[in-house]
């Protein structure tokens, strides 16, 4: 609404419209040579890209342990998009940036292979030769058969426009994080299933082996064992070890911290969850007997179980087997979800960056106009949260809809709000003690996290990025998770570390511990919570055990803050310690491949002088720092709520420095991170439909704008018709042909003010006689004209209620409606307008309507215009004042006053509406004569 | 034949510029009862918020009455009495919306209910007349009167009630019984058989007078104390009053068109809804001073006198019209043609042709009824309406709807008031500037 056509010189339009093409060609000598790239739909402001691809796309690649980096798929899945661009080469490039080499496997000194819930890394990478710039999102997926259980993947958003990547970094990061989270959730689920199957296999194998041994024992009573028997015993032992290891893995993967409600309404993937649980719980007496609580056991008892098979204790070597595809790695449901999200990302970031930025700004501004924005805007998708705003929206807490949800969540006892509450939460039992360490030093942690946030931002500001030695400019943007030493965390992860050094350690180090840990710091992963709780997140066994203090653990000097859970943790670990045994035979302890080793450093050198100075991403930030303290008392109603604070916001915008935004981010980062995670959860409920709705709305706007343009050119009486709509008088488009009527209705719908935050009061096609209720509900109606007796009834009803409606006869091209003598509509709908494109015209309309809205706002909220200043003041003087204000201050003439008055009534109704109930639509009307207009 | 007067689209004096449709009923809405100053209809507030839905009757409701608490000190405890064709009377509690008690010992449908607030009793009229107290004890009853039963009841001075039974008007008197403190006996005092046809409406004008109207268009003014006939208007279609009416038209009139559907009055006049028309009968002059013979397209069902010399009528044709009683000085404004629809030429074009019914007589009425506005919203017969002064007007109709008509300006001001109250409440006023 805010972006007028002169602000954005370029409006996104995929196809040229026919008007443009049908213009008579200029004589040769006057014609300016066309912009060479015009045929691509590129605007002249766009940088002439030397890229080999036509438009942005998303690439998913994998670092396959068998064949190395390989592209898996592109979005859009169209060969034309990537063109001659060498995907293989680029995959190699982007995969080689992967710094993390997430440590999985046998840490030295640890008995078990450890799964690390590693953070994704987010990197910007450029290749000026190729003309390609990419946001690269690395992630690892678990695969039981893979080396070290991990499969490194990356998703890259590749664009020819470097600025786009840089400026949209936050948005891209947020969006890709969500997609990645979805993928990883599916993966964890699949991995858990895999593990359970494997466990069953192992158990079966053990039973078989055991029986064989028994038989052998019985068969030979000589008192000594044959080599065969020893072999069997060894095999049995290794199987048993394998079982323990796998159980441990399962436990780890299941204990992945979910900070979500268990409530079913919070599950976007509900059916899948059920299925999954069914799959998970199968063989209760062995795999889950000591893990799951009895209730669960009963729950799953009836589930048909997987038939275990006899397997070799040693697993096959890596190169012998076929690696799973991405679909197999993740649950198919999650995979398609991810693909949907990625498609959405592609769609969202399509087009020129200036368009994206303008769109973001206008949307952010629009969101602030909470009192008026419902009038002409589709607020439903604003409330849904536009995709690119999600992350920052959460941080800024601008969405009170979401906030309310968050509040609801936070008020329910079960929600894991912050790290502190992990202690008491049964659902997220910490499995490592580092987490507890962190717990106990929470205040300190808060500090350090804040500090590091700032640091990170400083990195961004200083443009110091890690680089790849490739001659071209390749930046690695500071990624929060990568900014620390790996070696440290390795040791920490594996060994029980006493807290005192932790405390004394550098802040970075302590933070590292946390994130490297299996418990994540909440603030680092905002989209974490979209994971449904489809694994059993809790391990009651860890709780139910007796508190037990090991001697070794005594050295830890856990302070009184430790609670029983804590002790359990320690015990757990100590148990693990005690169970140190033989080397594992399968790939568990495999070292990571050599060629990966040098890479991890890359990301860890954010301070490396690269020499390449880049503009850091400076996306528009929605800063609402004042709101942080206010969620407690957040008003629970819509409308102008306390969350609005437009004045404060405005000032923030004006000062709008990054300093401010930084601060606010920092402030919010940890203590409000639960909000952000919860928020993303809320908004992620229905990711694709909302986005699709956005798209549809976009298309609708364009089409409506085009039709409206045609309408005002075609019909000389467009003005009174539009006036009718703006002043709340129902306009009926009467016609025989549905298509024509619907087209007109679509065109006119952009002028219809909404009565509430719900859908527009537009009814495209009605065939039955209208009633007064319809005029109360609909402000624009397409009505069928038939010659049948029923049609007569329809017309009779029309004539009966003629005082409430204006009638546009599409067949005879007449309009019956009150006279309009104002000036406003002529600006809105000038039939000599030079605007040619539908979307441009739509923006024009929106900008004028915005002006109108602000006038209505002013009018509505000026106290003295409606109420007497003193008690003795007569009503007439108020009326006079009101009319003067409308005429002189707002410069409205004649019927324009009625438009503003009508809008003001709508604003009032919306504002005074009680939260629980919807707006009771009113029918306001005037007793004014109608006139008949003809072409 | 004269056609209905129309007013067109420009209605300067019509205050109702806002309407709110209340949907809730599943069938014809027949009655509206004002319960107290801020609560207006059985189930709706002025905001149209549904407070209660009262379910209990299995057949249509035939009568409804409000029984306010007589005790001033007590908290307001209004009762609603509803009589139904299922031969029951249910007493509802207004504040809770609950059913207090159900009386089902009737032999026939109770057709009318009257509350004698003064005596703290209520009467039900069916085939007999019963007297009840607040606790729903049957105090006394008359013997069986007729099968048709009592169609209307009106309270008269000196503990009397007039009951319309067929074409008879029976006066009953309530006499305190000697043996009991709270007991009443009901005595038939007088039978008046002056009407030629069934008495349809019965209204008390003041303490001294009451008026009855019958199916054939007789209107009789009675003395409320000695029950004598003070005056009567036998035939509203009398050509002496309407000299321009052709005799053949008079012959063709069906009784339906002359029945007195409803009566209302102020101190001076009785307003009668007769057929499609409205007649103003002056009690002093004892004659019809103004009339609108075809005020509506079909029967007028309810009329009411407003304090500001206006009159509202509603009709089977689904419209509500606002009239003003004016002295005959200037001709009323010419109706605005509505040519557009006739242009389309659909079959049943409006009767609202250009010539309006300006057939006023030069000699007799010095007053005339001028149409100042009409309210069109209902698609079926408007059964009744309730006038709430400046707060608006509620109409109920056979199309299952209740429409609240309000003054748009007034409502807008109220909304502004609410808005600023809410702003202050939210503290948004302080935050600004």
From TrEMBL, chain A:
<dbReference type="InterPro" id="IPR037521">
    <property type="entry name" value="FLCN/SMCR8_DENN"/>
</dbReference>
<keyword id="KW-0072">Autophagy</keyword>
<feature type="region of interest" description="Disordered">
    <location>
        <begin position="481"/>
        <end position="519"/>
    </location>
</feature>
<dbReference type="GO" id="GO:0032045">
    <property type="term" value="C:guanyl-nucleotide exchange factor complex"/>
</dbReference>
<dbReference type="GO" id="GO:0005096">
    <property type="term" value="F:GTPase activator activity"/>
</dbReference>
<dbReference type="Pfam" id="PF11704">
    <property type="entry name" value="Folliculin"/>
</dbReference>
<feature type="compositionally biased region" description="Polar residues">
    <location>
        <begin position="481"/>
        <end position="503"/>
    </location>
</feature>
<dbReference type="GO" id="GO:0005737">
    <property type="term" value="C:cytoplasm"/>
</dbReference>
<dbReference type="GO" id="GO:0006914">
    <property type="term" value="P:autophagy"/>
</dbReference>
<protein>
    <submittedName>
        <fullName>SMCR8 protein</fullName>
    </submittedName>
</protein>
<keyword id="KW-0963">Cytoplasm</keyword>
<comment type="similarity">
    <text>Belongs to the SMCR8 family.</text>
</comment>
<dbReference type="GO" id="GO:0005085">
    <property type="term" value="F:guanyl-nucleotide exchange factor activity"/>
</dbReference>
<dbReference type="InterPro" id="IPR037520">
    <property type="entry name" value="Folliculin/SMCR8_longin"/>
</dbReference>
<keyword id="KW-0344">Guanine-nucleotide releasing factor</keyword>
<feature type="domain" description="UDENN FLCN/SMCR8-type">
    <location>
        <begin position="48"/>
        <end position="908"/>
    </location>
</feature>
UniProtKB/TrEMBL annotation, chain B:
<dbReference type="GO" id="GO:0005765">
    <property type="term" value="C:lysosomal membrane"/>
</dbReference>
<keyword id="KW-0853">WD repeat</keyword>
<keyword id="KW-0072">Autophagy</keyword>
<comment type="function">
    <text>Non-catalytic component of the C9orf72-SMCR8 complex, a complex that has guanine nucleotide exchange factor (GEF) activity and regulates autophagy. The C9orf72-SMCR8 complex promotes the exchange of GDP to GTP, converting inactive GDP-bound RAB8A and RAB39B into their active GTP-bound form, thereby promoting autophagosome maturation. As part of the C9orf72-SMCR8 complex, stimulates RAB8A and RAB11A GTPase activity in vitro, however WDR42 is shown not be an essential complex component for this function.</text>
</comment>
<keyword id="KW-0963">Cytoplasm</keyword>
<dbReference type="Pfam" id="PF25178">
    <property type="entry name" value="Beta-prop_WDR41"/>
</dbReference>
<comment type="subunit">
    <text>Component of the C9orf72-SMCR8 complex, at least composed of C9orf72, SMCR8 and WDR41. The complex is formed of two protomers, each individually consisting of one molecule each of C9orf72, SMCR8 and WDR41. The protomers homodimerize via an interaction between C9orf72 (via C-terminus) and SMCR8 (via N-terminus). Within each protomer SMCR8 (via DENN domain) acts as a bridging protein between WDR41 (via C-terminus and N-terminus) and C9orf72 (via C-terminus). The C9orf72-SMCR8 complex associates with the ULK1/ATG1 kinase complex.</text>
</comment>
<dbReference type="InterPro" id="IPR001680">
    <property type="entry name" value="WD40_rpt"/>
</dbReference>
<protein>
    <recommendedName>
        <fullName>WD repeat-containing protein 41</fullName>
    </recommendedName>
</protein>
<feature type="repeat" description="WD">
    <location>
        <begin position="54"/>
        <end position="102"/>
    </location>
</feature>
<dbReference type="GO" id="GO:0010506">
    <property type="term" value="P:regulation of autophagy"/>
</dbReference>
<dbReference type="GO" id="GO:0006914">
    <property type="term" value="P:autophagy"/>
</dbReference>
<keyword id="KW-0677">Repeat</keyword>
<dbReference type="InterPro" id="IPR036322">
    <property type="entry name" value="WD40_repeat_dom_sf"/>
</dbReference>
<feature type="repeat" description="WD">
    <location>
        <begin position="293"/>
        <end position="333"/>
    </location>
</feature>
<dbReference type="InterPro" id="IPR019775">
    <property type="entry name" value="WD40_repeat_CS"/>
</dbReference>
<dbReference type="InterPro" id="IPR015943">
    <property type="entry name" value="WD40/YVTN_repeat-like_dom_sf"/>
</dbReference>
<dbReference type="InterPro" id="IPR040102">
    <property type="entry name" value="WDR41"/>
</dbReference>
